[in-house]
Amino acid sequence: MLFSSLTFIYIFLPLVLIAHTLLPFRYKNATLFFFSLIFYAWGNVSYLALLVFSIAANYFFGRLIGRFIDLEHKKKKALLYLFIGVALNVALLVFFKYTGFILHNINKFSDLAGFNALSIPEILLPLGISFFTFQGLSYLIDVYRGHSNVQKNFINLGLYISLFPQLIAGPIVRYHDIDNQLMKRKIGRRKFAVGIERFIIGLVKKVLLANSFALIVDKTFVVSPDAMSTSQVWMGIIFYSLQIYYDFAGYSDMAIGLGKMLGFDFLENFNFPYISRSVREFWRRWHISLSSWFRDYVYIPLGGSRKSGGRTYFNLILVFFLTGFWHGAGFSFIVWGLMHGFMMIVERLGFSKVLKKMPSVISNLYVVLFVMVTWVFFRAENLPYAIAYVKKMFIYSSDTTINLGLYYTSQLYFYLILGVLGAYGFFPLLYKGFLKIYKSVNSQFRKVLLCSYDSLHLIVIVVLLLFTTIILLTGSYNPFIYFRF
Length: 485
Hints:
Blueprint: H1 6-22, H2 25-43, H3 48-68, H4 75-113, H5 129-145, H6 154-162, H7 164-167, H8 175-183, H9 189-220, H10 230-261, H11 279-285, H12 288-299, H13 309-327, H14 331-357, H15 360-379, H16 383-394, H17 410-423, H18 426-440, H19 443-473
Helix pairs in contact: 1-2, 2-6, 3-4, 3-5, 3-6, 4-5, 9-10, 9-17, 9-19, 10-15, 10-16, 10-17, 12-13, 13-14, 14-15, 15-16
C-alpha cells in the first residue's frame, strides 16, 4: 500500500487514527501492530509470514542475549546468541535479495570452466526487507551493548520492527531511539497538526515533483545513450537527481508525519543534501538513518578512523561497498558505493582543505556534479549502460535519433524551478525572513501578521492536499523508488 494512494489517505489512515485515538493506551500498540501487518500484507500477503518470522526470531534471540548479558561468567553465551541472531538476519536478507545475483555470477565462472550452470530460482524480493532487517539487527546489537533493555513484550517488539510508517522504505529507526516511546508517548493537538502538515508536504514532494520528474527520467533511461545528444543525457540525470531526492525525502516526510500523528518522534532522514560543500557533508545530510547505521554498527566497530591511515581507508571502502550492495544486487550499485568511498578518501587525504578555501559556489558545484555522475550508476540497469551514459555526458554530441521535447512542458519547467529552489532550502529561508519581519514590528501588528500567516498557511496546506488528490484520481504514475531496496 502506497502512502500516496487514495486508499491509504482516505480509508486506511483514518481507520488507524480513529482506532488509535479511541482505544486506551494499553491497547494502542496491539492495534498499531495489527494495522501494520495488514499494511504489509496489502502488497503481497505471502511474505507476511517472513516478517512475522523475523520479529519472532529477533524477539527470541533478544531474550537470550538479555538473559546472559548481565552475568559476567556467561557473557560469551550472550555473544554467541548475538552472533546467531545477526547471522540469521543477514542470511534472510542475502537469500531473498542476493541469491539470483550470486548464482548468476557463479554461472558465468562455471561457463568459463566448462561446468554445468546452476538453476536460478525466481525469488520475489519482499518489500522493505532491507529496512526491517536492519532494524532487527539494531535491536539485537543495542541489547548486547547495553544501550537498551531487552523487550519482553512480543507485541511491542513486533510494533517496533513492523510499524507501518517506516516499514517499507525507512527511515531506519534505531531501537534505543524508540524503546521509551513504545511504552509511553503523548499526542497533543500541536504535535498531531505538525504531523498532518509534514505528511502533506511529503505527499506534495512525491506526487507533484518526484512523479513529474520520473516521466522524463523513465523516457531517457530506456534509450541507448548513443541515440541521445549530450544535452538530453544531462537533462535526464538532472531530473533523476531531483526525482530520487523528492521521492525518498517525500516518503521520509510522510513517515515522520505519520509517526507524529501516532505519538512517535522519528529522527530526520534528509537535511538539504544538495547544498553540501563536500561528499563527506553530503553523507551527513543524505539518508541520515542509513549512513549513521553503517557508521555506528560497522565503521566504528571496525576501528573507524582511530587506526592507521590505511586501515581507516579500508574501513571507508568496506562501508561504502556495503552501502552500495545494500541498495541493490548489481555491480552498478557497488560501483556507485565505491565511487563515494573513494572520494571520501580523497577528501581525507587533503582535498577537504582545498574545498574549504574554495568559494562555496565552486565547492557545491563539485559535489552536485560528482553526485549526479554517480547517480547514473544508481539508475542504470547495468554497468555497461552506465559507462556509456557517463561517456556521452562528457563527450559532446548534438546528434540524436529521438525526440524528448514533447515531454518538456511549461508545467515541467515550473516544477523544475520549484524542485531546485526546494532542494537548496529556499522555502525555509522565506520562513526565516517572515520571522525577522515578525520580530521587527510592534506587538499590536504582530497579532495581525501572525493571524494572516496562519490563515494563509492553512489555505496553502488544504489546497495542496486537494490538488494532489485530484492528481491521484487521474491514476498517474506513482511508484516509490526505494520500494525496490
